Amino acid sequence: MNSFQFLVAVTASLGGLLFGYECGVMNVVLVMDAFRIFFKFHNWNGDALDENGKEITNDSQEKWYRDLKEADNKAMLEGVITSSFVLGALCGALMATYLGEKFGRQRTIMIGACIFTCGAIIQGLSARTWIMIAIGRLITGLSIGCNGVLCPTYISEVAPAKIRGTLSSCYQLMTTFGIIVAAIINSIVWYYTNIKPEGLGKPRSNIWEEVPNFEWRFALLFQVVPGLGLAILMSFLPKSPRWLCSKDRDEEAAEVLAKLNATSTSDSVVQEELKAIQEDVAATRAAGSSSVGELFSPVIRRRTFITFLMQLFQQWTGINVIMYYQSQIYGEIGFTKFMSTVVLPIINNFVNFISTFPGMWGIERLGRKTLLIIGSLMMMVFHISTWAFSTQTFRGKMWQYFAVASIFLMVFSFAWTWGPVPWVYQAEVFPLRVRVKGSAVGTVSNFLNNWIIAFVGPALMKAWSTKTFLLFAAACLLAWIYSQFYVIESKGLNLEEMDAKMAGKA
């Protein structure tokens, strides 16, 4: 791998950074007092809470936090604002099919980054109505859904077969990096604006009166930085050589391949890659134009179902219940508000980020299927242990830390296996003629199940508490059966060899 190939992969992977920051920022913003009061999720009459988030019972107690009162429509408003992003992502994934084939992967990713920036500005400058911020999140969702399909596809089409999985997993790495960046920045903001704010203990005549809104506006407007950064950097990257060949621009494709391989257009490596792509394009054209129905043809339908189910199981491992509602989970286990909101989430997000690196190594050394099998079994064990330890927390702090350690180990198990593999797999298994459509199926499955989890998660945690981890343990068992007996290994094959293997020709 040369420096240019690495630069191309890392730059395109910044689409994952946008996804991660958007996920991470809302987790913190939703617990910011100013945001809750501004959008009338809660009101505040001036009462205060102590260091552990408990009501003040006498005047001698030190006041730490605002004692907000939940509004009747809080759950509905929060659900609309949260789910609008996922709705946009679903639509964006479907749009990617048309835009990616018409305008190319590179140009469409640039457009998506600009759309993301516009959505971030609308969110950060929102008026006091849930409609405006929901529209802003819908727009950022369009970008994330579109780039969620095209970024891994673009990377897979410019990366050499031997390291395609490693480079494609950069998208997941950047997603986890975006989450930790959002957690750190916005936890610092939360600390300085939500701990011992002005007015604690002083009665307020208007319980709906705003408090300073800098905290959440800054958090949301900061998304403009990575959005513009991706748009600018992508303008310096080449178009996909496979897309260029599909548009009869073979000379440009040869120049891109030469640059990616740090050699001349006459080099044998470049000519062999170009010939393989041209043959694939020719075979695609001979079969006629592609359609969504082709994804369910006898030759392709297995990889369609593999991709759809892989993204489904990725969400039902329970990872996003932990990532979205981890502060609530830590509070349920018995930790203080500060530990639950700031310290433990940052540690967990850091574990999520660091654990992606073993996946980048293992995806080529061990293979996609092997990682899925290992990850399923590890997550099942740690879900069960989290539940078991959580039932013993009344015995003392040690059991609380055991439960949290199990959560961290579950996140580790996910981040190096089921985190990167579905994105790499869906970008490499489909033939060129339906590659974007096939990748879109996986992305739609991801965001659809993500949306379900976002709504079902709080209800499950309220009804079952930590028994919810047993449900996800059962889902991990099903994921192991699926991985062991249904998934086909794709390690080390170039994209043209992949077509042959999936079609039963090799």
What is the 3D form?
A: globular
Note poorly predicted spans.
none
Which structural category fits the helices and strands?
Answer: mainly alpha
The number of E-state strands comes to: 4
Q: How much helix is in the residues?
A: over 70%
Query: Kindly state the mean pLDDT as a whole number?
Result: 88
Strand order of the largest sheet: 1-4
Can you characterise this structure?
It is a single chain. The protein is built from 22 helices and four strands. By secondary structure, the chain is an all-alpha fold. Helix 14 (319-333) packs parallel to helix 20 (435-464). The longest helix is centred in the C-terminal third of the chain and has 30 residues, at 435-464. The two termini are 27 Å apart.
